[in-house]
Amino acid sequence: MNVSRLLSIVVFVLCFACSKPLPVLDGIDREEWAVDRNACGDTRASMREAIEREKEKLLGLDQIEVVKLLGKPDQHELSSRNEKFFYYFLDPAPTCEKGNSSPEKLIIRFNAVGLAKEVLVE
Asked: What CATH number did the domain enclosing 74 receive?
C-alpha cells in the first residue's frame, strides 16, 4: 500500500472517529420539522413545548450539525462580529398564506467559530 493512500485512510478514520453523535430531540419529528418550512403547514406549532424543553441540547453544536438535525434554517443573518443567527419559525411566517405579523421562532446564535452559543424561543 502506498504512503499517500495509507495517509488518506488514516485522515478519514480520524475525522469520523472523533465526531460525536447528534443529540436526540425528544418530541421533535425531524422530518416533519424540516418539511414545514416557515411553519406554513403549522406542524412546528405542535412541537413548541418539546423544542422549549430540548433546546439546551443544541448548545455547542456547529452549524452543520444544526442543519442535519433541524434542516435548513428559514432565515439566517450574519452580524458585524462574525456571529451568525439561524431562525426557525414556530408560527406561520409573514410570507405564509395564513402568516403572522410577529411569529414566534427558534433563534440559534453561533459564535465566531461557528458553535451554537445561545438558543432562544421568542
From this structure: 3.30.1450.10
